[in-house]
Amino acid sequence: MTDRTITFMEAINEALRQEMRRDETVILMGEDVAGGATLDHIEGQGEEAWGGVLGVTKGLVQEFGRNRVLDTPISESAFIGTTVAAAATGLRPVAELMFVDFFGVCMDQIFNQGGKLRYMFGGKAQVPMVVRTMIGAGLRAAGQHSGCHYPVFTHMPGLKTVVPSCPADAKGLLAGAIRDNDPVIFFEHKVLLFGEGPVPEEEYVLPLGVADVKREGSDVTVVAIGRMVSFALEAAEQLAGDGIEVEVIDPRTLSPLDEGTILDSVKKTHRLIVVDEDNPRCSMAADLVSLVSTQAFDYMDAQPQALTAPHTPVPFSPPLEDFYIPSVDTIVEAVKTAVNGS
Amino acid sequence: MAELSKDELLEIYECMQLIRTFEDRVSGLFAEGKLPGFVHLYAGEEAIAVGVCSHLTDDDFITSTHRGHGHCIAKGVEINPMMAELYGKETGSCKGKGGSMHIADVDKGMMGANGIVGGGGPLACGSGLTAKVKGTDQVTICFFGDGASEQGTMHEAMNLAKIWKLPVVFVCENNGFAESTPVGYHCSAKDISDRATAYNMPGFTVDGTDFFAVHEAAGEAIARARQGEGPSLVECKGFRYYGHFEGDAKAYYTEEMVADFKKRDPIGKFRQGVLDRNLVSEAELDKIDAQAKQTIEDAVKFAEESAYPALEECLTDVYVAYA
Amino acid sequence: MQSKIQNPKSKINMVGIIANPASGKDIRRLVAHGSVFDNNEKSNILQRILLALDALGVEQVSLMPDYYGLGEQALDGLKLSLDASILEMPVLGDENDSTEAGRRFREMGAGSIIVLGGDGTNRVVARGCGTVPLVSISTGTNNVFSRMIEGTVAGLAAGLVAQEAVDVNQVTYQAKRLDIYVNQVWVDMALVDAVACSDLWIGTRAIWDPSHIQEVVLTQAKPGSIGMSSIGVCLQPVDTHDKQGLYIAIGQGGISVLAPIAPGLVTRVDIREHRLLNIGDEITLNPDVRTIALDGERSIEIYQGQTASVRLTNDGPRVVNIQRCMAKAAKTGIFQARTTGKRRDIRCLHV
Fold first, then answer.
1. Residue C343 has pLDDT above 60, yes or no
2. Does residue C336 sit within a domain?
């Protein structure tokens, strides 16, 4: 593949840069995506103050200018709605909703406008927009900055949802999301952002709706989402020592969902464990368990299991937050139960 | 502003009369039980849609409201598909998938009626941003009501439009009522144009029942936006004849109010005005009235004779591609 | 000859207030960067007026009702000794409200009327107020007749006049006015200017494009003024107190002048001719006139075949000269009080 290793954050940045070079209708907007707008010592020098709250969009304003990298007010309804209609009228905007927990202040624009426009207009419009947003616990960011919430968006017809688990996927999937002609919500796990991985330098696109089998195995299928993919892979490594071969599947996009890859896997392994950092009710975990139970029931040798966070907001206190997040140990335990019976 | 030519005056009258005739007919059709769902009628506000949209081309954009039929007609959306859309027929503007509250024709720059009060403000910034980024002289009109003026989206949108100097004109159709709640109760500012000061943009109030006042005001505001001088807020004060939606008993209207509406009727005033000045003849206007009736009857016939969409249509148009 | 103040019930010691919620809100905000007078500020001004009237010991204040509720908002939470109430009258929400309020205040025997608005508002108040002295505070766009003055001071002047604490004849003057006739029938009046326009429609009412102006008739052309009267200033200044007016025909053939015809709009205007008018002179307007703007607002539509004329008269409202009123009051010692002993009728000057 490639020898070059960069962080998840740099992979996102590279995808944005390459897409903006390729297509001048791609623009970025969000709170502090450049930062320091109008300040002489920053904008006047063609510089930026932040480049995103964690620096994901750093350096883009220098190359593309303030006309394509737009700092917005803290006004999510306004700029997400702007993104919707800019997309419907000829641009390919990429908005940054700083933390997904903020969806409450702009959801109307996302699902009632962005997600429904095409259908309500009888197919006579398209909305090629992307909303990048940060998810996930692990940085002690507490209740209003740590949720996952991707099932909320996955639930909505008209939206597509993408949750990459590694830098290489993040780059290819973001390029795919930008080139996609439908509205895509792109979830970036804040702990993963700092992680590194091999990423090809050239442009490439990963298609939406195609799961990735991250590790092949014959005994049990573990479907993991986002940060949980790396936990599942670590658990699989441990379990291999015990002679249990775990197949780890990363759906990568939740809508559209690659049902075939998951069903084919459980038909082979006859066991399913879903690992999801999100809350359990009406969740992806529940959805995947339901999928397998209704489509592959006859193949199952054990009842499907869902390992999720508890039905609580994300707590602040470090031991509580650590407890909240599913762990490698619980995955190992669950796999053993599935394989050996309780 | 240049004075309007005779042909232009006749076109304007025709457009206002088409809206009125369409709405009156829809009211009847709804009462007869022929139309599914909800309809919110625009009759009484014709001078606003036509006064504003007569300055626009198909390349310009408008965002609309739940009371959007008038905006559609004024922006050039075809009548037959509109009526068919209200019936939920396959020949509808949106293939019967949107209905009254979502009629749209993006090719005509009509970005949709909107079932969410205040939903159009941020969208107007979006088409405004496209024009700005692409460097075109397209203008976006954001129609919104006095009710929507209390939504956070409108405040956010006006602020954003100003700081980005977007070519957007915010046209507030203050018809006095948010559903059944009077503006005197729901609005802290009463004159919604007062709020423009807070967004540091020009704001002013005109008589929304006077076509010529709206036309002149909108012309100036649109020209300003087109020249890159930024957004403005035009408040048009008027009324609506019908209730919030069809079936609304209108307990909040008094007989005096309705009598006053009739005195201020925008089409009646326009008609009297052009006749008093001998700009057109009564026969010419009567002919337009008759034509409008015929156009709407033809549209009803077209809609009624059209088929409902095939059931497979339920599943299409959600995505451009989904796999 | 100035007529004597005739106030049948002057002892009532009452001030009427007319605040126009619609003033300062027309299209000139956009085309000419006109001042913004939001209604919160008008309400604040009303409060300062009320405090001043209260401090003077004025007994009764009546405020015109309006769709916005400026009066109610001003009275809300204000602690006053005087009897302040909203005038009972139907609210139409148009300019006739101000005329009607002026008429009612006159009938109620108000000693003075305070007007918050521009020239347009004062014009419609003058249609109804008769000889009750006006104190005009500018909250409008074109302000020649009304003045930029702090509400507190305006309140004091209006109160002093209403109480007859100063010689009313000495501190007021009779304004001129322009009467407008269509086919010899009186239709309306103006206080400062009547402008014949080519615009077919009243439209947004405001006038700002000099190419639409045909003729201008002025009661005054005072240096320092804004609006149409500023054209006259460049040709032949006419003071408020001069028994003359000015007629100007716009068009090629004479000189051109640079004048501030609206706030933010200093423009060249071609002058075909101009001449002074005497009281009683009547000008028949060009037959091409289609609308007549009164005090800055297109107000009258003229159809083909109609004849419009403008007549200069001395029948305008009685107006309080605030400066002179305050000077006279100060000179009489009315604001003074010994620190010991009984106060005069000034109870409190904390305003």
1. no
2. no
**B201 Rama sector, left if φ>0, alpha if ψ -120 to 50, beta otherwise:** beta
Number of other residues whose CB lies within 10 A of the CB of residue B37 = 12
Residue B302 corresponds to which tokens in the numbers above? 């077209």
Gap between the Cα atoms of B151 and C269, Å rounded = 46
- The total number of structural domains in chain C stands at 2
Residue B72 DSSP SS3: helix
- Listed in sequence order, the residues at least 6 apart from A25 whose beta carbon sits closer than 8 Å to its beta carbon are A90, A91, A92
Give CATH for domain A212-340: 3.40.50.920
Tell me: do C248 and C192 sit in the same domain.
Answer: yes
Q: Is residue C3 part of a domain?
A: no
In a domain, C350, yes or no: no
pLDDT above 50 (res C7): no
Long-range contacts formed by B281-287: CB under 8 A, 24+ apart: B284/B10, B285/B13
For residue A220, the cross-strand partners are: A246
Q: Does pLDDT of C5 surpass 60?
A: no
| The CATH number of the domain covering residues in A5-198 | 3.40.50.970
What is the domain range of residue C248? 177-313
**A250-274 residue pLDDT tens:** 999 999 999 999 999 999 999 999 9
Q: Identify whether residues C35 and C136 lie together within a single domain.
A: yes
- In angstroms, what separates the C-alpha of B82 from chain C's closest C-alpha? 31
Confidence of residue C34 (pLDDT cuts 50, 70, 90): confident
Q: Which residues of A touch B310 (CB under 8 A)?
A: none
Contact C203 B210 (CB under 8 A): yes
Domain B6-315 of CATH type 3.10.25.10: no
Domain ranges for chain B: 6-315
Same domain, C216 and C205: yes
Cβ atoms < 10 Å from Cβ of C252: 8
Within a domain: C185: yes
Asked whether at least 3 C-beta pairs link B and A within 8 Å, the reply is: yes
Model confidence pLDDT, tens digit, residues A63-100: 999 999 999 999 999 999 999 999 999 999 999 999 99
Task: For B261-319, write each residue's pLDDT tens digit.
Answer: 999 999 999 999 999 999 999 999 999 999 999 999 999 999 999 999 999 999 999 99
DSSP B252: T
A67 and chain B in contact, CB less than 8 A: yes
